[in-house]
Structure formats: structure tokens, C-alpha cells
Amino acid sequence: MKIFQILFLVVLIIPFAEIYLLIQVGGIIGAFPTILLVVFTAVLGAWLLRQQGFSTFQRFQESLAQGVIPAYEMIEGPIILVGGALLLTPGFITDIIGFACLIPSLRRKIAQYVIENYLIQGGAHFQQAKAAENNVLEGEFSKEE
């Protein structure tokens, strides 16, 4: 399956699963507590997003000040952003995924996976760029008048 087909299925299925789960939880604990729980996770997610975002940005600046490339921080930033967006989206499934994105050890593992499989070893895009680089002809040019 191609990535766009998978993304389309996720965008199509997740809202239905969220609505189903909200109805089930609302049936068990009641509508008002369910709404409070959704609002609570959104507020908690916004607070965690701010805290984790500032922490990552501070590590980013420290790495730059030491002259080290902040590779992990550059990958963790978008993960934090996605996690925060998922936490602000009403629903329990997106909240679980969002909280997982804001757990520092799990986020570090995801960043490590991305760096090792797509940046260091050179995923398909990097290998294609290297192959294109091998097809370069070098020469000299001089303009005669």
C-alpha cells in the first residue's frame, strides 16, 4: 500500500473510532464526566506541549552553543508538535498517541530510529542522490574572445 492510501485510511477510520469510543465511555461514566475528561486531556496536553517544547528548544540552543549538530532536537521538535496537536484533538485514541509523542524516552527512540534509518544509513532518497552524484561529469570551461 502506498503512503497516501494508508494516510487516507487513517484519516477516515480514526474519527469513527474516536466517536465510537467517546459514546462508549460516555455510556459508562456519563456525558458530563466524558466531556470534562476530554477537556482535561487537552489542557494537560497543552501544558506538556509547552514544557517539552521549551525543554527541547533549550537543548537545541545548548547543542548549537557547543558547536554540536542538534540532530535529535531537530527530529524531536516535529514529534512534539504532532503530539500536541493530537492532544488538542478531542478523543481518546488521539490522546494516547499524543501522550506517547510527549514521553521523552519514547520520543528519543523515535528520533533515533529516524536518524539511523533515514539520515545516517541513507534511506532511498539519500541513495538516489548519491547515485545521481556519480553521474556528474567534471570539466573545465574557458571563454575565448
From TrEMBL:
Q: Which UniProt keywords apply?
A: Membrane, Transmembrane, Transmembrane helix
Q: Which chain positions lie within coiled-coil regions?
A: none
GO CC term, one of those recorded: membrane
Segments traversing the membrane: 6-23, 30-49, 79-103
Q: Which InterPro entries match?
A: FxsA (IPR007313)
Q: What is this protein called?
A: UPF0716 protein FxsA
| Species assigned in the record | Methylobacter tundripaludum
